């Protein structure tokens, strides 16, 4: 029996292309990106880091509402998104606003989502995405449905969904992968493993050695990737996308990453559950630092480039928050209108009641 | 006109809509080759193919999520939850997700999903199969909840539910599946959601009810007629939203009301009907509005079903109380 038991033990090796010093350690898997595309990836990561810093400041000033900080996770979020095409469908978790922005959600709408205005959830025409999901894992089962729909329609596109390490403990995480696997649906499942589900460390979520290996039980492909290495995340997602649209089925990607900030800006204090040593250990792996070193060595990035992106981001954010602040406020009658295609009797009555209140 | 059981009428409605609209998809546990545990999807996979009528893995939350995702890709999913007692496994996909699709997306997305599910007591099922849990979903804004009581209504209401561009929970009382036949027209016809039906006209007292209790109420009405009490029976057909206009019209005529439901008494559909009546028509009432319900225990193990479920004697007793008030 012993040799049989040993044969099912699994340990995934982590996929990496750039090491912490910005050196290529895996030449064979180096993605085929042009110089402009490499610069664009860096631009997006710098821009998103500035957006995170400004969002935290705006939240502290009371000008934003719900906000889940993203610093540290840029490579996982933007590297995976960079491998997508416009027609791909994103089902994000609550921290995945950057992917929505780079998929076409105007910045002022991202701010309106944060403030709790429904216009933040109205994706522009032709942009395939759901608003960020609040229930952990719910997007995984829905993604299987979108992925099956894309397959049945014969579309050469994928449904990509994101959760965190905590999300992998949910039943919906497994059900989503299992359904997608059973139907051979066009899906990419991403787990951004940032080590903590609010305060609970990854080791307490599961006895499994990796989260990537959970793909095996669902019969789909799985890989663990250095989530601070934007090229590795990009390459893995690109590979998953090509497989999916070729009809080879879904894939799970675990990205090993870290969030520098709190879980959200609603009172979480990471010093209660993380040591400063751990923070510094991960800051050494920073995705921007590493990729900047790589680009500088190829003479593709300068301090001037960096400053230009920072200034552009600050300018855009200033404009966007102004636009969000000036956007018409929601009324109860707006909320009532958004419940059904045709209002039933109870809501018709309530509509009249609130119309009268609002006209006073 | 064809004579059909309710289960045949449901199959007929599914077939009609599968034919009408290529975006209609029927799926769930055992609905493919096996035709569903109650045979509601009998022959449909053979007729429409495995892409339109298919089995799912055994996971209700997954089924709900699948329906939502397919709806986002322009399909019109008709998932089956094998028994509504399993709804606790899929309550997030139903109440947390599909009910909120239009609202959450600021009116830019919708979920034209009809969740079909058998429920209801008296057929000796194991635990968590027979519970009347319509109140659970009726409490969620964004859902319509439909419960037919006859084969004719079942077909027309199911076609309307599938065509509706918002989610509908369509609950089928198991005891009614094969207990009698009724006339069902061939081809397509619809019954407007949110409209009650007067199943029996009367002038002395109104019974407001739905599902299997429509038949217990009609039986009670026959008995009461022998004692000179002329009972009107209103079948809600849609329990959320309720058709208050039809109820009020009847109340203003009879001035006496009993509301009957198979579900437990606490926080249910009947309580909502009573509240609406007293808010809108208290001066038309000659007696308090009474309820006939099951007691507030957990649904009983099957041997105790017959002493636990409300029956026509309970209805006669309450009608006599309001008549003699």
Automatic annotation (TrEMBL), chain A:
Enzyme class: oxidoreductase
Taxonomy, superkingdom: Bacteria
SUPFAM superfamilies xref list: Thiamin diphosphate-binding fold (THDP-binding) (SSF52518)
Molecular-function annotations in GO: pyruvate dehydrogenase (acetyl-transferring) activity
Signal sequence extent: none
Cofactor: thiamine diphosphate
Dehydrogenase E1 component domain mapped to chain residues: 42-332
GO terms under biological process: branched-chain amino acid catabolic process
Keyword Oxidoreductase in record: yes
Residues forming coiled coils: 303-330
Keyword Oxidoreductase: yes
InterPro entries, sorted: Alpha-ketoacid_DH_E1_comp, DH_E1, PdhA/BkdA, THDP-binding
Keywords of the record: Coiled coil, Oxidoreductase, Pyruvate, Thiamine pyrophosphate
Enzyme Commission number, as recorded: 1.2.4.1
Reactions this protein catalyses: N(6)-[(R)-lipoyl]-L-lysyl-[protein] + pyruvate + H(+) = N(6)-[(R)-S(8)-acetyldihydrolipoyl]-L-lysyl-[protein] + CO2
Stored PANTHER family: 2-OXOISOVALERATE DEHYDROGENASE SUBUNIT ALPHA, MITOCHONDRIAL (PTHR43380:SF1)
Function: The pyruvate dehydrogenase complex catalyzes the overall conversion of pyruvate to acetyl-CoA and CO(2). It contains multiple copies of three enzymatic components: pyruvate dehydrogenase (E1), dihydrolipoamide acetyltransferase (E2) and lipoamide dehydrogenase (E3).
Assembly mode: Heterodimer of an alpha and a beta chain.
Record's protein name: Pyruvate dehydrogenase E1 component subunit alpha
From TrEMBL, chain B:
Taxonomic superkingdom: Bacteria
Residue ranges constituting the Transketolase-like pyrimidine-binding domain according to the UniProt record: 4-179
Coiled-coil ranges (or none): none
Keywords assigned by UniProt, alphabetized: Oxidoreductase, Thiamine pyrophosphate
Ranges that cross the membrane: none
One GO MF term: oxidoreductase activity
Required cofactor(s): thiamine diphosphate
Keyword Oxidoreductase found: yes
InterPro entries on file: THDP-binding (IPR029061), Transketo_C/PFOR_II (IPR009014), Transketolase-like_Pyr-bd (IPR005475), Transketolase_C (IPR033248)
Presence of the UniProt keyword GTP-binding in the record: no
One Pfam family of this chain: Transket_pyr
The protein's name in its UniProt record: 2-oxoisovalerate dehydrogenase subunit beta
Species whose genome carries this gene: Ornithinibacillus bavariensis
């Amino acid at each position: 029996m012993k040799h049989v038991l040993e044969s099912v033990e699994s340990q995934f090796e982590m996929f990496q292309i750039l090491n912490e010093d910005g050196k290529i350690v895996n030449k064979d898997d180096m993605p085929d990106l042009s110089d402009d595309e490499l610069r664009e990836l860096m631009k997006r990561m710098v821009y998103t880091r500035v957006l995170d810093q400004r969002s935290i400041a705006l939240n502290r000033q009371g000008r934003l509402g719900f906000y889940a900080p993203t610093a540290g996770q840029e490579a996982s979020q933007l590297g995976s998104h960079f491998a997508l095409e416009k027609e791909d469908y994103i089902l994000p978790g609550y921290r995945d606003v950057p992917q929505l922005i780079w998929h076409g959600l105007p910045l002022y709408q991202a701010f309106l989502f944060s403030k709790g205005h429904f216009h933040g959830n109205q994706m522009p025409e032709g942009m395939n995405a759901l608003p960020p999901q609040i229930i952990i894992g719910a997007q995984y089962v829905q993604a299987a449905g979108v992925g099956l729909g894309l397959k049945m329609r014969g579309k050469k596109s994928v449904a990509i969904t994101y959760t965190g390490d905590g999300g992998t403990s949910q039943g919906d995480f497994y059900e989503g992968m299992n359904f997608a696997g059973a139907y051979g649906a066009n899906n990419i499942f991403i787990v951004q493993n940032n080590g903590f589900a609010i305060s609970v460390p990854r080791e307490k979520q599961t006895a499994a050695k990796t989260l990537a290996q959970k793909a095996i039980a669902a019969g789909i492909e799985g890989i663990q990737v250095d989530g601070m290495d934007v090229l590795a995340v990009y390459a893995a997602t690109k590979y998953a996308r090509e497989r999916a649209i070729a009809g080879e089925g879904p894939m799970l990607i675990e990205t090993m990453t870290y969030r520098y900030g709190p879980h959200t800006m609603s009172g979480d204090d990471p010093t209660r559950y993380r040591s400063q040593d751990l923070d510094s250990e991960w800051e050494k792996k920073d995705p921007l630092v590493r990729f900047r070193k790589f680009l500088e060595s190829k003479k593709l990035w300068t301090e001037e480039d960096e400053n230009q992106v920072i200034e552009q981001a600050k300018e855009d954010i200033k404009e966007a928050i102004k636009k969000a602040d000036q956007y018409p406020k929601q009324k109860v009658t707006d909320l009532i209108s958004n419940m059904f295609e045709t209002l039933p009797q109870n809501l018709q009555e309530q509509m009249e009641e609130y119309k009268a209140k609002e006209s006073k | 006109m064809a004579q059909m059981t309710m289960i045949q009428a449901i199959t007929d409605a599914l077939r009609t809509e599968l034919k009408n609209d290529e975006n209609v998809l029927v799926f769930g546990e055992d609905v493919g080759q096996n035709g569903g545990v109650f045979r509601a999807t009998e022959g449909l996979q053979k007729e429409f193919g495995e892409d339109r009528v298919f089995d799912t893995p055994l996971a209700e939350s997954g089924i709900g999520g699948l329906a939502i995702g397919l709806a986002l890709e322009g399909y019109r999913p008709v998932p089956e939850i094998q028994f509504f007692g399993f709804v606790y496994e899929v309550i997030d996909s139903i109440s947390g997700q599909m009910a909120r699709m239009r609202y959450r997306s600021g009116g830019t997305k919708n979920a034209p999903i009809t969740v079909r599910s058998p429920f209801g007591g008296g057929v000796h099922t194991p635990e968590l199969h027979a519970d009347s849990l319509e109140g659970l979903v009726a409490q969620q804004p964004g859902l319509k909840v439909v419960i037919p009581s006859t084969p004719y209504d079942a077909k027309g209401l199911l076609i309307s539910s599938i065509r509706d561009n918002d989610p509908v929970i369509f609950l089928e009382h198991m005891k009614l599946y094969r207990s009698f036949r009724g006339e069902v027209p061939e081809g397509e016809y619809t019954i407007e959601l949110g409209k009650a039906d007067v199943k029996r006209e009367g002038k002395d007292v109104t019974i407001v009810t739905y599902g299997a209790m429509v038949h217990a109420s009609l039986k009670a009405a026959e008995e009461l007629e022998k004692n000179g009490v002329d009972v009107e029976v209103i079948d809600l057909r849609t329990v959320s939203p309720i058709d208050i206009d039809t109820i009020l019209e009847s109340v203003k005529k009879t001035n006496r009301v009993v509301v009957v439901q198979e579900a437990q008494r606490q926080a249910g559909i009947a309580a909502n009907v009573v509240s609406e009546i007293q808010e809108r028509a208290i001066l038309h009432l000659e007696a308090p509005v009474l309820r006939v319900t099951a007691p507030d225990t957990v649904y009983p193990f099957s041997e105790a079903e017959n002493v636990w479920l409300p029956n026509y004697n309970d209805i006669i007793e309450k009608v006599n109380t309001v008549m003699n008030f």
